Amino acid sequence: MTGSILLLVPPGWGGAWQQPLSVGGGKVYAQGVDPYDPAEIAYAVSFRPPPGLLATLPNLKAVFSLGAGVDGFLIDPDFPKHIPLIRFVDMSLSDEMAQFAALHVLMQHRTAPFFAAAQAQSKWRQRMLPRATADTRVGILGLGEIGTVCAERLRDLGFVVSGWSRSRKTVAGVTSYAGAAELDAFMAGCDFLICVLPLTPDTRHILNAETFAKLPKGAYVINIARGGHLNEPDLIRALDSGHLSGATLDVFETEPLPESNPIWKHPKIIATPHIAAITSPLAATRSILAGIAALERGDRPMNIVDMGRGY
Ligand code: NDP
Ligand code: OXD
After folding, report:
1. By alpha-carbon position, which residue is closest to atom 5 of ligand 2?
2. Can you tell me the distance from the alpha carbon of 73 to that of 1, in angstroms, rounded to the nearest whole number?
3. Of 104, 137, 153, 226, which is the active-site residue?
4. What is the pLDDT of residues 194-232, one digit of tens each?
């Protein structure tokens, strides 16, 4: 490898990454821990780099995202846009996301909270599913790498599945809606709505009062994409009015979610700390080193972000 790698991760994360990345043969510096010469850095690896820092590396050849989402890079006004930004795409990540989505759909569909409450009172309360699986519609906002795996998994569980994306998709057994013109029709057919969109100027606050109003009464919302997709006060109002039956939120506008945020204590919200999927250091290292090898051969690495689209 020509040049070194700079790891820009929160304090304490470096240990998991430095050793696996050094297998590539280059030096790996953890920013904030190891002293480094900016001119020596050829590759940067991060999730949410400190704004302005990447612009201080004069010989940077590529930036690797430890996540699938790259909004944490593109909010930096000084991000060096002429350099390839390569995102993490891997079945290990898609699998975990699909598992999380299926878990939260199934918990509500099988009315897990009802049975937990009955057990808490030592009550034997049998009841049927409120709605047959084959009559339950799950919609995926963002039918990309992760959304497609979520859709296939939920389809295989017997749900009626649809997806919305910018371009039309062909996924067996999944109805594809495309573009802004088909958003209302898509929303109208979602008993469960799962957001797996990238966060871009076009998708910011896409989960808002207006879009919630297009969902059927009693719909359940799952946001596993980014906190910036959701207008939090609009969600609380839609839950409190009874229009939505509940929500699972894994991502938040402010992370960590402040203790004072009412979301923590809302009876209709399940909140988890951005753990729907966690990047595996082994899998990500494999893909970063493969990307570096491709660049050094003069080839185009996979999963380069389209700067025009922002994902
Ligand atoms: P992809 O880029 O593969 O897929 C994005 C999908 O969204 C595509 O289908 C794309 O349409 C669609 N899309 C984007 N913009 C629009 C728009 N304006 N209108 C309609 N559709 C749009 O991303 P991934 O599936 O790999 O990842 C999705 C997101 O999941 C990440 O950006 C990240 O934020 C989040 N994530 C969260 C994790 C967590 O732990 N909570 C873990 C991993 C990811 P088209 O295909 O037509 O371009
Ligand atoms: C990602 C994430 O974008 O973990 O991969 O949020």
Report:
1. 67
2. 24
3. 226
4. 999 999 999 999 999 999 999 999 999 999 999 999 999
The two structure tokens encoding residue 105: 């759909």
Is any atom of ligand 2 closer than 6 Å to the C-beta of 224? no
The secondary structure of 86-155 as a DSSP string is E----HHHHHHHHHHHHHHHHHHHTTHHHHHHHHHTT-------SS-GGG-EEEEE--SHHHHHHHHHHH
Q: How far apart are CA 266 and CA 47, in angstroms?
A: 29
Q: Summarize pLDDT for 85-135 with one digit per residue, the tens.
A: 999 999 999 999 999 999 999 999 999 999 999 999 999 999 999 999 999
Q: Give, as one character, the DSSP assignment of residue 48.
A: S
Q: Is the dihedral of CA 275, 281, 287, 289 positive or negative?
A: positive
Residue 161 is which amino acid? V
The token pair at 85 is: 């930004």
Judged on CB neighbours under 10 Å (0-12, 13-18, 19+), 173 is: exposed
